[in-house]
């Protein structure tokens, strides 16, 4: 008789969980690690974690890794490409708040980058 709780492929769900198979192994682990680093960064600066802060900082880090800079429009466009429907004003306000708290810096060309102190915090946590 068929039992839906028993796997039919010969694998035990408990054994798969112990081995770390599934989405965590291939898809989520790097994102989780990156988010943990950004969460730690925000905590060090006395800021609460929010999805928009995580995504904005991640967009700036990604741009920096690719030797690019992003302004407000660039960050907003990047988030829209990722399917994150945030308003331009929300992105601008988050960037202004992160600037005022010293997490990021507004450059002369109106682009944003991680502040030196914030970069030190991330480097201490181990950049991938």
Q: In total, how many beta strands?
A: 2
Helix fraction?
55-70%
| CATH superfamily caption | Winged helix-like DNA-binding domain superfamily/Winged helix DNA-binding domain
The N- and C-terminal alpha carbons lie at a distance of 49 Å
Biggest sheet character: 2 strands, antiparallel
Estimate what percentage of residues fall within beta strands.
Answer: under 5%
Q: For the largest beta sheet, what order do the strands appear in spatially?
A: 1-2
Number of H- or I-type helical stretches: 6
> Which fold name corresponds to the CATH topology?
Arc Repressor Mutant, subunit A
What is the typical, i.e. mean, pLDDT?
A: 81
- Rg, rounded, reads 19 Å
Please provide the ordered H/E string of secondary-structure elements: HHHHHEEH
Explain how this protein is built.
With 128 residues, this protein is mainly alpha-helical. The chain has a single domain (28-125), classed as Winged helix-like DNA-binding domain superfamily/Winged helix DNA-binding domain (Arc Repressor Mutant, subunit A). 60% of the residues lie in helices and 5% in strands. The protein contains six helices and two strands; from the N terminus they run H-H-H-H-H-E-E-H. It has helices at residues 13-19, 23-44, 51-65, 72-81, 88-100, 116-125, and strands at residues 104-106, 112-114. The chain has a two-stranded antiparallel sheet. Helix 2 packs across helix 6. The longest helix is centred in the N-terminal third of the chain and has 22 residues, at 23-44. The protein is globular, with a radius of gyration of 19 Å. It starts with 12 loop residues before the first helix and ends with a helix. Residues 11-30 have low confidence and may be disordered.
């Amino acid at each position: 008789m068929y039992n839906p709780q028993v796997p039919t492929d010969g694998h035990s769900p408990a054994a798969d969980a112990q081995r770390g198979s599934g989405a965590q192994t291939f898809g989520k682990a790097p994102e989780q690690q990156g988010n943990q680093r950004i969460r730690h960064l925000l905590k060090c600066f006395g800021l609460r974690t929010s999805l928009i802060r995580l995504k904005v900082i991640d967009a700036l880090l990604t741009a920096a890794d690719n030797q690019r800079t992003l302004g407000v429009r660039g960050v907003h466009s990047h988030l829209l490409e990722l399917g994150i429907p945030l308003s331009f004003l929300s992105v601008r306000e988050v960037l202004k708040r992160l600037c005022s708290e010293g997490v990021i810096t507004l450059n002369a060309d109106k682009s944003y980058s991680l502040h030196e102190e914030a970069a030190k915090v991330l480097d201490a946590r181990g950049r991938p």
